[in-house]
Amino acid sequence: MLRQQREHADRLRLRVVGVATPSPELDTAWTWSAARLASFVARVPGVGTGLMAGFASSRPGWGDARPGYAWFFGRDACWCGDALLAAGLFTEARLTLEFLAHTADVTGKVAHEVTASGVAHYDAADATPLFLRYACAYAEWTGDVHTIRSLWPQIRAAVAFVRANGADRNGLPDNRGVGHGWIESGPLGGGSITSYTASIWIDALRRLQPLAARMGDEPLRRQLARLEGRARRAFEGSLRDPITGLLYLQLGTDGTPVRELTALAAVPIALGVDGHVSAQHILARLGSDEFSTPWGVRLISRQDARYRPRGYHFGAVWPLFTGWTALAAYARRDGALGWRLLLANARCAQLRSRGAFDEVLDGDTGAAAGVCADQAWSAAMLISPFIQGVVGMQPSALAATCTIDPQWPAHWAGASLHGLRVGKSRFSLAMESHRGRSAGGGMHRYAVRLDDGPPLSLRFGRGRAARTVTLEPGREVTVEQRASRQPAAAGRGDDGTR
After folding, report:
1. With bands split at pLDDT 50, 70 and 90, how would you rate the model's confidence at 486?
2. pLDDT interval class at 491 (50, 70, 90)
3. Strand pairing partners for 457?
4. What's the whole-model pTM score?
5. How far is Cα 146 from Cα 278, in angstroms, rounded to an integer?
6. E strands of 131-255, at which residues?
7. N or C: which end of the chain has fewer CB within 10 A?
8. Alpha helices (H) in 43-176, listed in sequence order
9. Which pLDDT does position 485 carry in this prediction?
């Protein structure tokens, strides 16, 4: 068994994206997170192959039938799917997507949990919009039209399910009679329309339209365009405070706005749905001591009377929330905050079990505070913010293009990555910084090489300063670009160097 595990690890290293940076903490945690994330893709005879949520010892009572979270979870798989794709694990990403499609209910609703004995629970309102968004991400990264076409009936059914549960009536998904929109229990549970689920639905609608066109499904494309317009109007009209400009957490079952700021506010920002100026205020609070700790981001403020440091949905730190906030920071070009939070997740790999990322941490001490000591999406939230935020990869495999819009830590002199994947193309990227060791910027010089597959068009940066090059076999391309100006990192030890 040990020999088989070693051989499996060796094969995995050949497939996964490799990273070498000035931060030993990041590099070590990257290797662990990729290995752990791949380990959650499991096959159960008679049930299927998909992504399990986590591994840990079973416990008496509610947890005596499973070790940790060793069931297949819908929402977990979708958030982890982003990281599988970013890490180059396309096969695992496909198996994860197919499992969600094949275990969906006849209504099109995606499962929240599927047990190892094949029993399915359909009690999450966010799983179906997340599945639609994940299908789009899979196509954007892999260009695998064959798989998307084979799953198109399930994708259409998922759209129809969300439409039938609020999107046609109110413009946004309604949780009433559907399930929980993230918060399952605790003092913040019970919302009917949440800004979290609504933003996922809007992002899915935006990304599904070009995919529907590619599938030749013009009626659905037109329907998606109408739904997106209606959803965006409803999002701004019913979920944004007209005085402060801040998003509500949710609307209660009677339509009353719930105004509390939580870490969930990072999701609309990270997805680009909340582009309001108030997003800067949200990030400033989430990045402050009110929410942030050296080990991550609390769900609610420690100043809230309901705050409990080990409260599962009312206080504890989740690496998942930390990753969401890091993604939101990078989306708003705050690379210093993004890097600080990314490092907090990297350190999780060494806190207890070597290479395992806890599900939940005590909001006051950082001690383990959750059911699962080896959680999939906790490992995923190192990979996604690094590739999408620090490296700034935005793939479009169907068009054989990729944008690279990095936000490197200002103190880095260089970094290199190999095995980056877009469609059937693999490439390597090396960065050298010149006069760029201060927040004032400088120049970045990139050496990029196509290692395998067909030619790929790379676009560096954005706006008028963007540079586009074509990668072809046997030819290294060099690009120079002015470094983006980054806010200075706050606090000692935030640079990740030793």
Report:
1. low
2. very low
3. 401, 470
4. 0.95
5. 42
6. 193-194, 250-251
7. N
8. 74-86, 90-102, 127-142, 145-162
9. 62
Question: Taking the C-alpha atoms of 410, 488, 272 and 147 in order, what is their torsion angle to the nearest 10 degrees?
Answer: 30
Mean of per-residue pLDDT scores for the chain: 93
pLDDT tens digits, 31-63: 999 999 999 999 999 999 999 999 988 888 877
Round to whole Å and give the CA distance between 217 and 424: 25
Residue-wise over 351-389: b if at least 16 C-beta within 10 A, else e?
beeebbbbbbbbbbebebbbbbbbbbbbbbbbbbbbbbb
What distance in Å separates the CA atoms of residue 233 and residue 70, rounded to the nearest whole number? 40
Helices vs strands, H then E, count in the chain: 13, 19
State both tokens at 443.
């120049």
Amino acid at 259: R
User: How many beta carbons lie within 10 A of that of residue 98, not counting itself?
Assistant: 18
Rounded alpha-carbon distances, angstroms, from residue 387 to 50, 132, 153, 403, 404: 23, 21, 31, 12, 10
Q: Can you name the residues that pair with 20 across neighbouring β-strands? A: 416
* pLDDT: which is higher, 463 or 143: 143
